[in-house]
Amino acid sequence: MTVGIVSYGAYIPKYRIKTEEIASVWGGDAEILKAGLKVFEKSVPDVDEDAATIAVEAARNAMKRGGVDPQRIGAVYTGSESHPYAVKPTSTIVAEAVGATPDMTAADFEFACKAGSAAVQVCMGLVGSGMIDLGLAIGADVSQGAPNDALEYTAAAGGAAYVIGRQESELIAIIEDTYSFTTDTPDFWRREGQPYPGHGGRFTGDPGYFKHVTSGAKGLMKKMGTTPSDYKYAVFHQPNGKFPERAAQMLGFTKEQIQPGLVVPKLGNTYSGSCLMGIAATLDIAQPGDRIFATAYGSGAGSDAFSILVTDKIEAKRNLAPSVQQLLADPIYLSYGKYAHHKGKIRFG
């Protein structure tokens, strides 16, 4: 049975902080940091924004773009590593906000930065089996980085939502196939109650990101009998600007293929929203018949790869909700003090 994307939506807070501003506080060399990370600024949530509110906004944009009847949504799954409650689902908040309750199922997903893509896969299974009509899969985060940690220069806020369905007359893109590669590789972690994550530094590179992204990507292409030249575009998880560029090169994809979805330099790493945001930015400009290759990565560790074929239905829906580039436009820049307030880094008692 054909399964694919009925609609998609993104949300990015309007606040940003530049790499130079963070570096000026901690005595870092901004030019070296920008050259090494290829991240020049990152999004910052407003003081009243969290993963739930971001997920709601992304979901509303997806529903708006697709003109989706919320009562057709049979499942809402939100992937995040920064759910606002330890015990209280984010997905029920989203479902209520978009009008999908009560005849539906909901759950929250966690798998570092690929919880959103895992939600897409589960929705694909439920839709494909006929258990539900439409599924809503979301990746949203207000990711954390300890003061003066390398993550502070990249950990950002944002999210993307996808409505998954099976009626070919509605699909703006067909998900041709998916493949996952998973191991127990503890390159990044945060225990319950800890405000900031720990990470293995360079260990997160080759044993974590590159092994899993390349293995997941190669696994899908082998499964489908495709090569990089069969795709117009490619998207890889974006913890920084260098990693996806190197992964693309290792796999045989060109810089031109990944450029439309490479939003991390002006956005930062939106974690569970990262790969899904890159796919959204690519769908914003893709034409009917274009194929998109995407591989999400989550520390811990695993990758989810997708092959996506854009249909002619995208033309009628594309401009019915804000594009990723529109959401990135006209930012409000913050000082480090304001940023610390927005992020809750100033604690009392």
Automatic annotation (TrEMBL):
Residues 222-302 form the Beta-ketoacyl-[acyl-carrier-protein] synthase III C-terminal domain. It catalyses: acetoacetyl-CoA + acetyl-CoA + H2O = (3S)-3-hydroxy-3-methylglutaryl-CoA + CoA + H(+). Interacts with acetoacetyl-CoA thiolase that catalyzes the precedent step in the pathway and with a DUF35 protein. The acetoacetyl-CoA thiolase/HMG-CoA synthase complex channels the intermediate via a fused CoA-binding site, which allows for efficient coupling of the endergonic thiolase reaction with the exergonic HMGCS reaction. GO terms for molecular function: acetyl-CoA C-acetyltransferase activity; hydroxymethylglutaryl-CoA synthase activity. GO terms for biological process: farnesyl diphosphate biosynthetic process, mevalonate pathway; isopentenyl diphosphate biosynthetic process, mevalonate pathway. Catalyzes the condensation of acetyl-CoA with acetoacetyl-CoA to form 3-hydroxy-3-methylglutaryl-CoA (HMG-CoA). Functions in the mevalonate (MVA) pathway leading to isopentenyl diphosphate (IPP), a key precursor for the biosynthesis of isoprenoid compounds that are building blocks of archaeal membrane lipids. (3S)-3-hydroxy-3-methylglutaryl-CoA binds at residues 29-30, 113, 154, 204, 237, 246, 269, 299. It holds the Pfam family ACP_syn_III_C. CoA binds at residues 202, 242. Its EC number is 2.3.3.10. It is an enzyme of class 2 (transferase). The active site is at 81 (proton donor/acceptor), 113 (acyl-thioester intermediate), 237 (proton donor/acceptor). Pathway: Metabolic intermediate biosynthesis; (R)-mevalonate biosynthesis; (R)-mevalonate from acetyl-CoA: step 2/3. InterPro entries: ACP_syn_III_C, HMG_CoA_Synthase, Thiolase-like. It comes from the Archaea. This is Hydroxymethylglutaryl-CoA synthase. PANTHER family: 3-HYDROXY-3-METHYLGLUTARYL COENZYME A SYNTHASE (PTHR43323), HYDROXYMETHYLGLUTARYL-COA SYNTHASE (PTHR43323:SF2). Belongs to the thiolase-like superfamily. Archaeal HMG-CoA synthase family. Keywords: Acyltransferase, Isoprene biosynthesis, Transferase.
